[in-house]
Amino acid sequence: MSWQAYTDNLIAGNKLDKAALYSRNGDSLWAQSGQFQLDNKEISEIAKGFDDPSNLQAHGLYAQQQKYFLLRNDDRSLYGKHEAEGLICVRTKQTILIAHYPSGVQPGEATTIVEKLADYLIGVGY
């Protein structure tokens, strides 16, 4: 399966409307849905935020120039919220999955989809 198929599958269920797959260091975009691409500073801050979230806690989580309030952070997942929309970032052994859910979607439903894909990728060595 190509990397593009993973982002396509994330948005196929209508709970997520944008998705991207980056290398674990955030230095390479592997796949994206539509025009969902973060600028270099945004993905760099997300990649650093898994190990040290202090900057994201102080200044917010950014994607496509939109600021999200950081709700959760650990060495695997970062969750952000802006009004009724949200951002989910999950790090695997070799990738960072980033997905956006629109207003009207329950955050738990959206996070489950991304976390399950991350579990699958980890299980197959990625």
From TrEMBL:
State the GO CC annotations.
Answer: cell cortex; cytoskeleton
Functionally, this protein is described as follows: Binds to actin and affects the structure of the cytoskeleton. At high concentrations, profilin prevents the polymerization of actin, whereas it enhances it at low concentrations.
Similarity section: Belongs to the profilin family.
Mind listing the UniProt keywords for this protein, alphabetically? Actin-binding, Cytoplasm, Cytoskeleton
Keyword Cytoplasm in the entry? The reply is yes
Protein name (database record): Profilin
Q: Does the keyword Cytoplasm apply?
A: yes
Gene3D superfamilies named among the record's database cross-references: Dynein light chain 2a, cytoplasmic
GO terms for biological process, alphabetical: mitotic actomyosin contractile ring assembly
Task: State where the protein is found.
Answer: Cytoplasm, Cytoskeleton
* Gene Ontology MF term list: actin monomer binding
Q: Which PANTHER family match?
A: PROFILIN (PTHR11604:SF0)
Q: How does it assemble?
A: Occurs in many kinds of cells as a complex with monomeric actin in a 1:1 ratio.
**CDD domains, A to Z:** PROF (cd00148)
